[in-house]
Specification:
The chain is 28% helix and 22% strand. With 565 residues, the chain is of the alpha/beta class. The strands form 6 sheets. Strands 10-23-24-25-21-22-11 form a 7-stranded mixed β-sheet, covered by helices on one side.
Amino acid sequence: MADNKMQENEKVVKNNFIHLQIENDLKEGKNNQRVHTRFPPEPNGYLHIGHAKSICLNFGTAEKFGGKCNLRFDDTNPSKEETEYVDSIMDDVHWLGFDWEDRLFYASDYFEKLYDFAVKLINDGKAYVDDQDAEVISQQKGTPTRPGIESPFRNRTPEENLDLFTRMKNGEFNEGEKVLRAKIDMASPNMHMRDPIIYRVLKAPHHRTGDKWVIYPMYDFAHGQSDYWEGITHSVCTLEFEVHRPLYDWCIDQLQEADYRPRQIEFARLNLSYTVMSKRKLLELVQDKHVKGWDDPRMPTISGLRRRGYTPESIRNFADRIGVTKVDGMIDVTLLEHSVREHLNKSAQRVMGVLNPLKVVITNYPEGQEEELDAVNNPEDESMGKRKVPFSRELYIEREDFMEDPPRKFFRLGPGREVRLRYAYFITCNKVIKNDKGEIVELQCTYDPASKGGNSPDGRKVKATLHWVSIKHAIKSEVRLYDRLFTVEDPLSVKDKDFKEFMNPEAYKVLPNCYVEPFVSQAKPFDHFQFERLGYFNLDPDSGSDNLIFNRTVQLRDTWAKHNK
RNA sequence: UGACCCGUGGUGUAAUUGGCAACACAACUGAUUUUGGUUCAGUAGAGUCCAAGUUCGAGCCUUGGCGGGUCAACCA
């Protein structure tokens, strides 16, 4: 009883400072007790693990308070945005396990309303058309420590402004020739309040509106209004928008019909050790073909992680574990890796595989004889059942599992040693056969028929249990092994130009001659398996029967090194 | 020499809103184990950036320092 309650409590999403603020707003009766969030990606790339944090936060928060969460594409810059990205983003959000139902929006849905709103600002004398070019405007803006100076076009009449803005809309001006600016305060200590540009001429086709528009609103001008029109109550974004908040609020203030106020709340974006997350850099990796695409398993994108073998549950658990604060820190990847291991350890089927085969002949096992042995699919979950594994005279074991001259703490096979073949028999190594080059090519062993299933009736113990496959029955397969893409612990410290120098050359390896149990061939894409001492793997959905080995390798290698000291 | 934000073990988050700092990851030790996995038991590690102040009592409040971050795109 008490235990049940404890477990329930553990499942409840951890409170964070945003939840506390919302509870407070609710207590004060704000927004008619509504909680409505949104996830607003710009469709200019694939979503990555950092976005997953935001998705879990926004959708999770809505869920927690019985509210709603919209998906809105912030598509106000047609030069960078593509439909491919829109599609992938929708796939990824769904895959993570969240649903916007019928609340799919685009900032481009509001182009008309945004235009009308800009006209209203002009009529109110709160916006003006500036004829100066980007460089001049930038210079007049001043610096963070020095106030700006006013544009000579700042005091045009509303009539003149309206005429010019209309002509901007009609395509009479070229890019860069004219912009619409909000008239706020050139002396403000906040750079964003120094007459920010709210509309610019951009003669690029938009992925949804085509060439209907040649002027596009800027982020600051579009975001708050979009929030308002969608009924968003809590507009959660990352820390770098903190200084934009006064402008966000200013825009809302101009909405005279405003019957409620969306509120911007900022949190720290995710920084992960050994992980490059900048969209610009990821795009570069894709464009320069350092990886095979946005969903390459080496990428920190959600689709990359998915192909890498990560489960949605594990990513959601990770997001919950790291919490939400305004502290700009660096989270250790091991926490992410722990989250998958935790989930996969419960859900992955165990199967035997040999990545680097070494032939073993059981000399006292009759030639031509075969048998099927029982193997459990998951020792921690009996409901996952059993399978039959074929056994015969000639087997492969992992080359790493044998050492001719074993060091002190090596427990596995060596000359004269006895080990267990998992689910099969005890075997003892009697003879090592080498080729001309002195390489070990075969091991001759004897088995103990009495130890069938893996236990000896005399109670004899062995120190190691090995994976194996029957050569005749095993399926030969190409296996791809993945490791961390980058070698720097703090990728943020690396200069933009140099980041590729820190790519890990070992991050991707193809192992051509691997062997797995026949059982694997029955698997479906995204079924997860676990190999002894190699970690989890899953079938790659995009290349037929190839396998991906998933990331525990490094850890286990380290473990062995430690024991070997 | 501006504005805004942040500062708790190695890392990330907590601390009943002022009551002697907890949890997870990582590390280490030991036990169990038909995966050197898992599981279990345990150890170590911060006195909360610093300094004053208020208070019986401060990680939480005040002031002043120090340190870090963000902002000067017709990007989001």
